[in-house]
Amino acid sequence: MQVFLQTIIGGVSLGAVYALVALGFSLVYRTMGLVNFAHGNVVTVGAYLASTFYLTSKLPFALAMVIAIAVTGAIGLVIERVLRPLENRDFDLMLIGTIGFGIVLDALVIAIWGATGRAVPSPVQTEPIDLLGLRIRTYDLVVLAIAAAATVLLVLFLSRTKRGAAMQAVAMDHEAATAVGIHVGRSNAIAFMIGAGLAALAGGLVGPLLYVSPALGGALGIKGFAAAILGGFGSIPGAIVGGLAIGVLDSFTAGHFQGYSELVTFIVFTVIIMVRPTGVFGERTVNRA
Amino acid sequence: MPRLRATAIIPLLLLAASAGCSAPGANDDDAKSGSGPIKIALVDAQSGQLSSLGAWELKGARLAVDEWNAAGGVNGRQIQLDVFDDQGDPTTGTTLARKIDSEGHIAMIGTAESAVTIAMAPILKQAEIPNITSGQSPGLVAAGSEFLFLNGPTSTTYDETLAKYIVDKQGLKSIAMITNNGSYGKGEHDAFLKALSSRNVVPVADQVVTTDQKDFSAVLTGIRQKNPQVIFVGAEEVESGLIVKQARDLGITVPFAGAAPQGTPVFLDTAGAKNAEKTIVSSPYLSNDVSDASKKFAAAYKAKYNEDAELHGAKAYDGTQILLTALKSSNVATGKALADAIRGTKYQGLLGDFAYDQTGVGIFATSIGTIQNGKLVAVTG
């Protein structure tokens, strides 16, 4: 029982990070119908920026995160701006464009920070909480709280603000949205910016849990993408549920199948997707697909 | 790093240009004949998760080459060290093996990844290019190539020494194991398990993780319930560090034990110095202070790269020194003659005294150290 619960706790903390990555994927997808293949690399950039401001510039962790999110958001804007001429013309080219941006970001990261990577000490130095023999890292709670806050803010933005409503409208029917005077390009730009910001948030938060290296985003990107699909691609609650589910699933397969855990995780994932191709919260009719 | 890339590319371009002018196949002989620089390839991960190994190797090898070049090279010829990035990937490695053959490199330094080296071995054997690797998997010996040499002991030596210290000396019999399913981890698993079973010790837990696993809660909680006295970790630097860090967060207080990776700064940084305290390390190069030669090496390393030397740089330095010594003693031989010259080289290195046997292993001893106050300290007696 103790192993069971501890496994869930371990899975949830990484799951929260997968959920943030999945949110970024989903937000861009629901707005533009585009899978941003550079998303994983944006996570890496965010992780490096956050760790650099935190460790090298000695800024407080929270401030380092904010700067990292702002800079990475700006990178998101650049990606969207470059790809904008292709919007509604050639979708495949846009997809390949995001892959290209991923390679460019990867090369930039290695050029700027080198290929070796760095360890980031945890900003929360308190001892883990001991709850009836279960150990909960305080930093995990911080990650969960920030992930939850980010999700709530995102949902509020999409449902309560005019700009958010405009983005929802573009997601439903971009031609009709254009007809009523909504600037589709700007809406896409905001989606890309927020998506990149979420990637930086995920990357920055995961730094102290793992090890910041150029390979970081690749692993998180794939798990995050799988999480987005599992929850229903484009769905906000789906991204959260999918992220946590992948995290916990991963954690359990690691305990039971040892060296074959990755294989089992993705077999389970494939079976779920075969049974329910639209994912848990799939609502493809609402979104552009 | 980008500067390294650029300098690696320029000779390649020049070579491509010169190859275009000469008859097909002629370039192969040009490089091997008696004039011009001696071309040696360094193949290692310069990008990806294992790039820290590749970066250390490059620094150690470069230091040795620069020392020889400053002293006039080998037989008056300068040594040209060309760097190739295998990304830690065996497939890329095999492509590079063909490439260094066609570009006329007479010997190869690297790789630091046993799996990559094993993949490259058949091609290098066919091309008769001697290769001094930093890998330590017993699988390298099993590859059975007379052109493959190790610049350190195999896992068997590391883990036999470790088991001897833990079981025979400390009397610890309740031991848990975590290893990964990569080439290095598998070698460590088999070697340590063999060393334990020869002492009639059965590990209380034998857990296997994947090479890119990030969360070890399930595995570690299982181990915690078994209450071992010591935990053996067979995984690369970063993963070992994550395992130790997460174990401490889960309230596991017993010491960890392992081979070379646990003695590196990357392991210490990833785990956190406090968490890594008391880790038992089996390594042929415990610190920069073990001998006069290592102090000199460490000072030169620090002066050149502004960072502290460690095991992998020292191994690559030794390996490169052995290769260059063999080149000198054989009058810049190539192919089989060079391989024989390497086998015949007796060399007093940073890791100890090298004397190669038929399997390509030249050194058979490691020492035990423990991490105290964030530093690896030799265990005396």
From TrEMBL, chain A:
> Where do the TM regions start and end?
6-27, 34-55, 61-79, 91-116, 136-158, 190-212, 224-248, 260-279
The membrane topology term of the UniProt record is: Multi-pass membrane protein
| UniProt keyword annotation of Signal present | no
User: Which domain of life does this protein belong to?
Assistant: Bacteria
Protein's cellular compartments: Cell membrane
What are the record's GO terms for cellular component? Answer: plasma membrane
The UniProt entry, under CDD domains, shows: TM_PBP1_LivH_like
Coiled-coil positions are: none
A molecular function annotated in GO for this UniProt entry is: transmembrane transporter activity
Query: One Pfam family this chain carries?
Result: BPD_transp_2
Q: Which UniProt keywords apply?
A: Amino-acid transport, Cell membrane, Membrane, Transmembrane, Transmembrane helix, Transport
Among InterPro entries, the record links this protein to:
ABC_transp_permease, BCAA_transport_permease
The signal sequence is: none
Name the GO terms of the biological process aspect: amino acid transport
Annotated family = Belongs to the binding-protein-dependent transport system permease family. LivHM subfamily.
Q: What is this protein called?
A: Amino acid/amide ABC transporter membrane protein 1, HAAT family
* Species of provenance: Actinoplanes regularis
State the taxonomy lineage. Bacteria, Bacillati, Actinomycetota, Actinomycetes, Micromonosporales
Automatic annotation (TrEMBL), chain B:
Q: Name one GO biological process term.
A: amino acid transport
- The organism sits in which domain of life? Bacteria
Q: Which residues form the Leucine-binding protein domain?
A: 37-372
Cross-referenced Pfam families:
Peripla_BP_6 (PF13458)
Which UniProt keywords are present, listed alphabetically? Answer: Amino-acid transport, Signal, Transport
Presence of keyword Signal: yes
What is the residue range of the signal peptide feature? 1-23
Family designation: Belongs to the leucine-binding protein family.
Protein known as: Amino acid/amide ABC transporter substrate-binding protein, HAAT family
Write down the species: Actinoplanes regularis
- Read off the lineage from the record: Bacteria, Bacillati, Actinomycetota, Actinomycetes, Micromonosporales
